[in-house]
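Comment thread on ticket #2218

A.B. wrote:
> Attaching the input chain for the structure job we discussed in standup.
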Amino acid sequence: MSGLAAAVPRDLVVGVGASSRAERTEVLRLLTDTLREAGLDRCAVARLATVAGKADHPAVRWAAGHLPGVPVDEHPAEALAGVPVPNPSALAGAAVGTASVAEAAALASAPGGRLVVTKRRSAAATVAIARVAAPGPDRPHRAHLRP
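C.D. wrote:
> Ran it. Output below, let me know if you need it in another format.
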């Protein structure tokens, strides 16, 4: 397929949780490993999502900086607390006011979508991946060209 570009739908939202002790490169490493293990393309990531106040965390900023054109959504803890998730955590609830950051944030930024990868952990970070709902008349399809 020399010289041809394949369209990769940008339909993934990566939810991110990062504790104060998360290393700068930790989120990107966890995100990259999780995508690879799930057989998902990094070019398909449309956005990152997290709890309010964490978009400026150095590890979240580092990951976003290595995914060109990928914004970071922030959601209030109260909103995330209302999102049903498969893996709630009492520790997260006590720390940030919601029993889920990664899974709930991914779903909150992918309305009508579904989790394709449940929460994965490293020492001080979590990620989960949601796929946005299929495009329709009210949901345009976004693609990223990949050589």
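A.B. wrote:
> Thanks. Noting for the ticket: Helices lie at 26-38, 58-65, 77-81, 90-96, 102-108.
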